[in-house]
Structure formats: C-alpha cells, structure tokens
C-alpha cells in the first residue's frame, strides 16, 4: 500500500465515522423522545453545534422553515440554511484532509516556496503601510513645526 491509498482509507474511515455519529445522534434523540412521549427535536445537536459555534450562523425560531441564518435578523437575513452546509463541509474535510496532507508532504518544495512568497508579500505590505504612516507623521505641522 502506498501513501495515497492509506490517505483515502483514513479519509473514508473519517467520513464513515462522521455519518455514523450524525445518525446515532438522530437515533438517540428520537429514542429519547419516544421513551418520554414527547416530540423529537428537528435540529441535530451535532449539526447545531457546528453551525452556531464553528461556522458562526444564528439560530432561527422553532417554526421557521430554515433552521439557521446569516444577517441581522431572520427577516433581514442574507442567507438561510437547514444545516446541510455543516454536514457536507465536515464530510468533505474528513474525506480530503488526509490526501491533501500527503500531497503537501510530497510537494514540500512547492509548499515552502508559496509560504516564502506569502511571508514576503506580508512583509512588503506592512513596510508600505508603515512608510505611509511615517510620511503622514513627518508632514504633520503640529508634531514637527517648521
């Protein structure tokens, strides 16, 4: 087995575990509701945690069609979501992260080049911003009267 096959196996196991955790949480919620003769909640707690805490969405009311929204309020929302974004993003991450890690390890020269270019660009941008501030400071007659 080579590294790519191992990465795909790890990604497949991670994706399978994610789907299993999602399904088990739904099963537990419905079992709990059945035992206590109550209505099962519509929102999965794992998806709710990812949408609210990690992705930064806001929760809508219980009767709304879309469970999560972005914007000032539910009526002034810019985006609506039923939680599918969290499900798909986690699944894609678990499937692709091991393979991406292997590819980045194999192409270490390219990764270092890109990181060096990014660091140089950030340094140049900071230097230009500081130069602009210095020029404004020197030109200020209150600080340096002539």
Give me the number of helical elements.
4
Q: Write down the secondary-structure element order.
A: HHEEEHH
| Strand line-up of the largest beta sheet | 1-2-3
Strand content: 5-15%
Sheet with the most strands, sense and barrel status: 3 strands, antiparallel
**Global morphology:** flat
Share of residues in helices: 55-70%
Structural class: mainly alpha
DSSP strand tally: 3
**Mean pLDDT rating:** 80
Radius of gyration: 25 Å
Low-confidence stretches: none
Termini Cα gap:
76 Å
Number of domains: 2
Spell out the blueprint of helices and strands.
Blueprint: H1 3-35, H2 45-54, E1 58-59, E2 68-71, E3 77-81, H3 84-106, H4 108-139
Antiparallel strand pairs: 1-2, 2-3
Brief overview:
With 146 residues, the chain is mainly alpha-helical.
Can you describe this structure?
This protein is mainly alpha-helical. The chain has two domains: 3-104, no CATH class; 107-140. It is 67% helix and 8% strand. The chain has four helices and three strands, in the order ααβββαα. It has helices spanning 3-35, 45-54, 84-106, 108-139, and strands at residues 58-59, 68-71, 77-81. It has a three-stranded antiparallel beta sheet, with helices on one face. A hairpin with a 5-residue loop joins strand 2 (68-71) and strand 3. The longest helix has 33 residues, at 3-35. The radius of gyration is 25 Å and the shape is flat. The N and C termini lie far apart (76 Å). The mean pLDDT is 80.
């Amino acid at each position: 087995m080579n590294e790519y096959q191992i990465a795909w196996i790890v990604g497949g196991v991670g994706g399978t575990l994610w789907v299993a955790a999602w399904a088990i949480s739904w099963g537990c919620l419905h079992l709990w509701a059945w035992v206590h003769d109550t209505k099962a909640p519509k929102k999965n707690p794992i998806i709710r945690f990812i949408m609210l805490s990690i992705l930064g969405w806001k929760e809508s009311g219980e009767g709304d069609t879309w469970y999560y929204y972005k914007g000032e309020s539910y009526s002034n929302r810019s985006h609506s979501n039923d939680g599918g974004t969290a499900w798909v993003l986690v699944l894609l991450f678990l499937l692709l992260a091991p393979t991406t890690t292997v590819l980045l390890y194999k192409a270490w020269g390219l990764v270092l080049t890109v990181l060096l270019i990014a660091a140089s660009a950030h340094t140049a941008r900071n230097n230009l911003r500081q130069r602009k501030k210095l020029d404004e400071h020197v030109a200020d007659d209150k600080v340096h009267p002539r």
